[in-house]
Write a structure and sequence with these properties.
Blueprint: E1 3-7, E2 10-13, E3 18-25, E4 33-39, E5 46-51, E6 58-60, E7 68-73, E8 78-83, E9 92-99, E10 113-114, E11 118-123
Parallel strand pairs: 2-11
Antiparallel strand pairs: 1-3, 3-8, 4-5, 4-9, 5-6, 7-8, 9-10, 9-11
């Protein structure tokens, strides 16, 4: 089991950038695939991006592809989500998640450990 703590959320204007961080502890970080999900009020939690534990293979939701970048630093036990060209539709609570699985990382059911989330609000 791994503990996850997100940070970096905030209130920004449309078009701005933010970088979210997720610090992991309590497990061997390099053996976990990591994902970012988000949930807006009244909606289901949806997949944003993922990075595998091997080879750093990445996957993105269509809505964020080309704007968001997921990366990891195994030496710091941290995964990042760089978010550029933010829009009002990106407003949500962003959650970090971990799994020992290496495939189908777009499905939230693959993940066993979750952080508490960090709020991202984009204003016009």
């Amino acid at each position: 089991q791994v503990q996850l703590v997100e940070s970096g959320g905030g209130l920004v204007q449309a078009g701005a950038s933010l970088r979210l961080s997720c610090a992991a502890s309590g497990g061997t970080f390099s053996t976990y695939s990591m994902g970012w999900f988000r949930q807006a009020p009244g909606t289901e939690r949806e997949f944003v991006a993922a990075i595998s534990w091997f080879g750093g293979r990445t996957d993105y939701a269509v809505s964020v592809k080309g704007r968001f970048t997921i990366s990891r630093d195994n030496a710091k036990n941290t995964v990042y989500l760089q978010m550029n060209s933010l829009t009002l539709e990106d407003t949500a609570i962003y959650f970090c998640a971990a799994t020992i699985q290496g495939s189908a990382l777009g499905s939230r059911n693959r993940y066993t450990d979750w952080g508490q989330g960090t709020q991202v609000t984009v204003s016009s």
